[in-house]
Structure formats: structure tokens, C-alpha cells
Design a protein that fits this description.
By secondary structure, this protein is mostly helical. Among the domains are: 236-321, Glutamyl-trna Synthetase, Domain 2 (Glutamyl-tRNA Synthetase, domain 2), CATH 1.10.1160; 322-362, no CATH class; 370-468, Arc Repressor Mutant, subunit A, CATH 1.10.10. Helix content is 45%, strand content 11%. The strands form 5 sheets. It has a 3-stranded parallel β-sheet, with helices on one face. Helix 6 links the parallel strand 9 (192-196) and strand 10 (219-223). Helix 9 (255-263) crosses helix 11 (307-319). The longest helix is centred in the C-terminal third of the chain and has 17 residues, at 387-403. It binds glutamic acid.
Length: 469
């Protein structure tokens, strides 16, 4: 059974790329009855924030993504230390006492001589309190090649001579990312590492650590980069809120539609289907569907969301049950200060017109606002008619609606009857009524709309329209 992990560093909000990494791990785990682990990489005390951790949880909660086990790296420092010690004891790491190398990015090339310090001297200097960085002793004598197979990028090989003696412990004694990550992967018995392609080159170092820990390296699957339309790697600094998951939530994406969109960034099912339910994604997910080229999110300054994401969202909205949709719309309507009491009636009428959940307030404005948006009197004029006809139609409608039963079929019958009585076509009566109650010509189906608005509102609005005439 696979054991996979999503390992965010809590140094910012949940980025769409991180969400995708979670989703791919999760799909793989759920497809294979495996275990999904959330590992919080919080060893970088200077950059971690509690707020960031909360925003990661908030994003995952919104997406309805779950996990089976959870760990914090900061609670496992003794395990990282233990692995560092065992590697050192095997002679596979050495202490580097050069002051400059307390910066863990300084490579072995810059501190010749440190590798060769005898164990005796090294112990003596450490015992005397001299600060050091613990470095991995990358094999140099033999023309060794470090290899691994990536499920996405294929066979990977690098000459050991091209890998620097990277740090395992910083001069502060704290673990580097490479050490902490591998120590936890070993302890948690991770079978597959699925993460961003930006970690591909780190993997050579990780393979060396796994070997030093006598652990069979997990299988790797690196995911293509997410990039902006100009090809630049997505970043908050450069691209703003479009890279944050909560931006999608706040704009009215369905969690599931967002997951669907994100999963298609760099992956596609065999049959190239685009709209997939959660269960369908789990069923068809496999590494073979992941491609190597960067995945572009097509946003512009005018429209911050990729057209495909909006299309997928409206498609999921269109095909979900009106009851479920009403549940999603309720908090939005209430947050805007309106009553959600009639949402059950309203939702099926506007379902087809909503692309993002927040559209409910635009396409359904006349249901919620007591006052209609102002409209021109001329809009009340039906096709091939005039103001006099509009007046005649509204007066007849008013009379009919005063006594009609407020349900779809009786309303239709009443208005058709009214048109006949005054001798105009039914359509010529419906048009001014629609404008009178909705404030515009393009609106949801009329009889359902009248029903949802209720008698009092309809009569009042028709009176107002007549007053304009
Ligand atoms: N904390 C690392 C990151 O956010 C984890 C990388 C990994 O999956 O090993 O990039």
C-alpha cells in the first residue's frame, strides 16, 4: 500500500501549485488505497508563521481534502539528529569548520581540506565548541553516478563529481531541508514522493541520503511547473492573488471545480475527458497521464481566472442538483445581507446563468434587492407594440395576478387568459411584465420568477411600472 506525503513549508498562504501537489498525492493514495500524510515542514523557524499554517489548513478544508496521518517536522528534530549522527558514524559525513560555510549553500568546492580532517581532530574541535556544518561526503574517488527513475521525467543520472558536499546540519545544529525531509521519509516509510519539478535536482542528494540510511529510495514522480501565460514561474510577488487558493474560493469557485481544473494542469486522463467528478478522478488517476511540459494558467489582467477554470465551474454548477447549489449559494446571499428563504425557488431559475457562485448576486439581483435597478420606460414596450400596448398589458396582468394562484402553471394560465381578454399576443403581454418585475429584458423564465418573487412584490413592481407610463 503506497504511503505518500504532502509536505508544505508554512511560509505563505496555500499556493495553487501546492494545492496541485496535495491533490496529486491524494489522488494517488485514494486510487491505490494508500495512506495520505500531511507533513508540515516547519524547521525554518525564521520563515514559518502560524498564520501561514492556518491558511494552509483553511485552503485544504475548503477543498474538502482529507489526510490520514499528520506530523510536524519541528517535533521530530531528534530523529533528524539521529540520522545525521548515524551517517556521520558511518564516515559518510564530515564536520566542516570553515566559518563561511555556516551558510549551508556554500559548496564543498569552497572549503577544500575539511573533508580530510581526521576523526580525532574533528571530535576535539567539536568538543571545544568550535561551530561546524555537517556535510555529506559525496563519493569522489570513483567515477560514481547517482541514479533514479522518475515516473514522469524518466531515467535520471548525475555524476557524483557534480554534486557538492551538501549540508545535513547547519552551524546552529538544526537540520537542513535535505536531512529533515529524508529522515522523515525514512521514518514514515514513504513509498512515493510526488512533488514539484523544482525538486528534481535535489533528488540526487536525497538518493545519497537514503542510501546512507540503508533505505530503499521511494519512487519519485515530479510534477511539471505551473507557469503564467508569459512562461514565468507562478509567484505571489510577481502575479499577486491569482496564485492563492483562497482567491478562487472568494471568487465563487466550487471546491470540486477548482480541484478538477487544477488536476488538469499537467495531467490528463487517457480519454482526455475534462469534466470529472471527484470519484472519477480517483478512478482514472495514474502517473502515466502526467506530462513533462510546464502547465500554463491563462490569466490576464482583466480576467484573473483561466477561461477553462470558469467553464469547468459553470459546467459543474449546471450539472449539480439545485438543492446542492442552493446550499452553496446560501452563505453568499446571506453575507450580502439578503434573506435566503426563497433560494429553493430561485436557484433552479438561475442555475444555467451562474458561472461563479458569486454571480448569484448579479443574475438574481431582482430577487434579493427590494428596489429594482432603474430601467428606461421604453424597455417596457413589447416587440411590435407601443407605450399604449405596454400599459394595456400591465393593467391586464395586474388584474390577473391579483387573484391568480402563485404557482407556475396557474400563473401561466392566468397571464395567457389576460392577454386574450385584452386582445394582444401572449408574448406581447409577457415582455412588459418581465421588465416590470425584473427590471430588464433578459431574465430567467417568467412564471417561475413570478412565483419566486411572490404576489406582493410582483403587484408592487407592476404598479411602479404603470406609474412610469
Ligand atoms: N517543504 C518542501 C516544499 O515545500 C517539501 C518538498 C518535498 O516534498 O520534499 O517544497
Amino acid at each position: 500500500m503506497p504511503r505518500v506525503r504532502f509536505a508544505p513549508s508554512p511560509t505563505g498562504y496555500l499556493h495553487v501549485g501546492s494545492a496541485r501537489t496535495f491533490i496529486f498525492n491524494w489522488l494517488y493514495a485514494r486510487h491505490n488505497n494508500g495512506t495520505m500524510i500531511l507533513r508540515i515542514d516547519d524547521t525554518d523557524l525564521e520563515r514559518n508563521t502560524e498564520q501561514s499554517l492556518q491558511s494552509i489548513f483553511e485552503g485544504l478544508k475548503w477543498l474538502g481534502l482529507d489526510w490520514d496521518e499528520q506530523y510536524r517536522q519541528s517535533e521530530r528534530l531528534d530523529r533528524h539528529q539521529a540520522l545525521a549522527e548515524s551517517i556521520f558514524e558511518k564516515g559518510l559525513a564530515y564536520r566542516d569548520f570553515t566559518p563561511a560555510s555556516s551558510d549551508s549553500t556554500v559548496g564543498w568546492l569552497f572549503n577544500p581540506g575539511q573533508r580530510e580532517i581526521s576523526r580525532e581532530e574533528s571530535d576535539r574541535r567539536a568538543a571545544a565548541g568550535e561551530p561546524f556544518v555537517l556535510r555529506f561526503r559525496v563519493p569522489r574517488d570513483t567515477p560514481e553516478t547517482v541514479r533514479f527513475t522518475d515516473a514522469v521525467y524518466g531515467e535520471q543520472a548525475k555524476l557524483a563529481a557534480d554534486i557538492e558536499d551538501f549540508a545535513l546540519l547547519r552551524s546552529t545544529g538544526g537540520p537542513t531541508y535535505h536531512l529533515a525531509s529524508c529522515a522523515d521519509d525514512v521514518d514514515l516509510n514513504i513509498s512515493h514522493i510526488i512533488r514539484g519539478q523544482d525538486h528534481l535536482t535535489n533528488t540526487f542528494k536525497h538518493v545519497l541520503i537514503f542510501q546512507a540510511a540503508d533505505f530503499t529510495p521511494p519512487q519519485f514522480a515530479h510534477l511539471p511547473l505551473l507557469v503564467a501565460p508569459d512562461g514565468a514561474k507562478l509567484s505571489k510577488r510577481k502575479h499577486g492573488p491569482v496564485v492563492s487558493v483562497t482567491t478562487y474560493r472568494d471568487a465563487g469557485f466550487l471546491p470540486h471545480a477548482f480541484i478538477n481544473f487544477i488536476s488538469l494542469l499537467g495531467w490528463s486522463p487517457k480519454d482526455d475527458r475534462e469534466r470529472l467528478t471527484r470519484a472519477e478522478m480517483i478512478e482514472v488517476f495514474s502517473f502515466e497521464g502526467i506530462n513533462r511540459s510546464n502547465a500554463v494558467i491563462n490569466f490576464t489582467e482583466e480576467s484573473p481566472f483561466d477561461a477553462k477554470s470558469v467553464w469547468l465551474n459553470s459546467d459543474h454548477i449546471r450539472t449539480m442538483s439545485a438543492t446542492d447549489l442552493a446550499t452553496e449559494l446560501k452563505p453568499i446571499v446571506e453575507a450580502a445581507g439578503f434573506s435566503s428563504e426563497r433560494l429553493g425557488l430561485i436557484t433552479p431559475l438561475i442555475q444555467e446563468r451562474i458561472r461563479l457562485l458569486n454571480d448569484v448576486l448579479i443574475v438574481g439581483d431582482f430577487f434579493f434587492n427590494a428596489e429594482l435597478a432603474p430601467y428606461e420606460t421604453t424597455e417596457l414596450v413589447p416587440k411590435k407594440g407601443d407605450l399604449a400596448m405596454a400599459k394595456k398589458a400591465l393593467e391586464a396582468a395586474l388584474l390577473a395576478l391579483e387573484s391568480a394562484e402563485f404557482a407556475h402553471d396557474p400563473l401561466e394560465a392566468a397571464l395567457r387568459g389576460a392577454a386574450e381578454t385584452v386582445g394582444i399576443k401572449a408574448g406581447q403581454l409577457f415582455e412588459p411584465v418581465r421588465v416590470a418585475v425584473c427590471g430588464r429584458k433578459t431574465a430567467p423564465p417568467l412564471f417561475g420568477t413570478l412565483e419566486a418573487l411572490g404576489r406582493d412584490v410582483c403587484l408592487a413592481r407592476i404598479h411602479q411600472a404603470l406609474a412610469k407610463l
